[in-house]
Amino acid sequence: MQLGMVGLGRMGGNMTERLLKGGHQVLVFDPREEAVAEAAKRGAGPSESLADLVHKLEPPRAVWVMVPSGDPTEVTIFSLADVLNKGDVVIDGGNSNYRETVRRATALGDRGIHMLDAGTSGGIWGLTEGYSLMVGGNSDVYSRVESIFATLAPGPMTGFGLVGPSGAGHFVKMVHNGIEYGLMQAFAEGFELLKAKKEFGLDLKGIGEIWQHGSVVRSWLLDLAVDALAEDSDLSSIRGFVDDSGEGRWTVQEAIDLGVPADVITTSLFRRFRSRQEESFSDRMLAALRQEFGGHSVKSTQE
Q1: d(Cα 30, Cα 48) in Å, to the nearest integer?
Q2: For residue 302, pLDDT beyond 70
């Protein structure tokens, strides 16, 4: 099947390569000429602009947008809408907020252009392992381009599917990322507890390798933890600053809006915020209060 790909960052570039290997004809565009040239070396058809990309695609067209969420996605999708025709399909594979996705799908629908939202998980490993794809949109439109998802997924019958109407794909991906926050935090705390038991001299990598087989906690995240420990047993080369993409925040806000308790996900998000503080004012206030009411000693900033 023929497909247009807009956005050749690391993930978009890997997806393009996987589609080409799967026998699809892929035409690409990216503002960076070097990214387009690199994709062309792998067999993709280069384009000089969004209009040029659309012109080269055979109708009804399918264009996958893989750019950062927010304004880049907004501008790209509506710029495409200005040059696409009725019956064409836009697939948003980025981490867009599902509410924005619903709005965009409605606006494109008013022009007769279809939109699918594809929550995409797999990161840098997707090229070799395949991507988990959670798709929202019209079922007939989904069926029309299903072979694209089947090629990108881990297998032709696994790891992808239509989960609901427009916005549902990005909503499911949002919750997926919230769960991911909680799982990562649990592994982080567990390994820190193991490391803190100094008298046992525990081998964290070795314990992780034991858990990889037969354990209830065996998982891809555990595999990645073992790989990280194999490279640096103390993780001494990594600063403990944990960023967030925004989807954890959206998940927590949705839990508040729906009145659904999401204690673990919320705590893991706040723990990421805490990781970015060199020194917490709240911790200093706690120390000061203990000194004031109980005469407990405090450590001076000069110590």
Answers
A1: 8
A2: no
